[in-house]
Amino acid sequence: MEKKKLFLCEEACGILIRAFIYPTTDWEYPNEQGLGCNALNANDTKNFLAFLKLLRKKLGTSHRLSAAVSMKGFMSPDGQNYLSDVSEFAKVLNFFTIMAYDVYGSSFSKLAGPNSPLYSTCSEPTKKYSVAQTIKQWTSTGIPSRQLLLGIPSYGYAYTLLSSKITPSHLSGQPGVTSLLFQPHANTVPESGKTAGQAGGTDACGNPNVAGGQWLFKELSETGKLSNNQQKGLNGYRRIYDNCTHTAGVTINNTLVGSNNKKR
């Protein structure tokens, strides 16, 4: 790293140490788009590691240091493939908090799918991301399982399905292995919870904000769609549980909302 940049990093490290006992970092994502207008550099991951090493040096061993990371791993300099060995990160970080959510969402996915699937057996071939997959990904690239934390969502996405009848999808390629999810849906996002992002204005990239379509799990109970223990649909809503992805949802007419994954 250049001396000027190194100086700035040292200043930033000092601020972090003074402000937080257990600092965490969140870069979405090194050499990979997150918001949509990130300035990418082939050395992003390398520089991120250099910054973390400097931060660890400033912190010493008494402070815990963690990073929020994607389900896929750290991107290589080519911008196409994920690194097969990221063990150097395990030497400076205490924990890796995997953001195991937003695999599917009403405003950015072609099919109505699970927000945070446990397994991806029934997913689209291009969306084979799941809790099981990401744990395997990180441990296979040199991160001990004891250093992995799982970030799970407290919300689900709402979809306007093209049909009020749910026909089991068959994307697994295995005989008899189907899912209640991965349904075609309209571009119209149905009613959302109070905490969901609303349409209007622009994001940091200058793109129009669209309705988020999220419902907090507790809001589904508070608004009479699910029982308090979230195991039974109310007021015309039906609770479903998908045994392939191990995720749940509630449906009414042609609306599907992801809910708490706890099985009956």
UniProtKB/TrEMBL annotation:
GO terms for cellular component: extracellular region. It comes from Puccinia coronata f. sp. avenae. It comes from the Eukaryota. Residues 1-264 form the GH18 domain. Pfam families: Glyco_hydro_18 (PF00704). This is GH18 domain-containing protein. GO terms for biological process: carbohydrate metabolic process; chitin catabolic process. One of its GO terms (molecular function) is chitin binding.
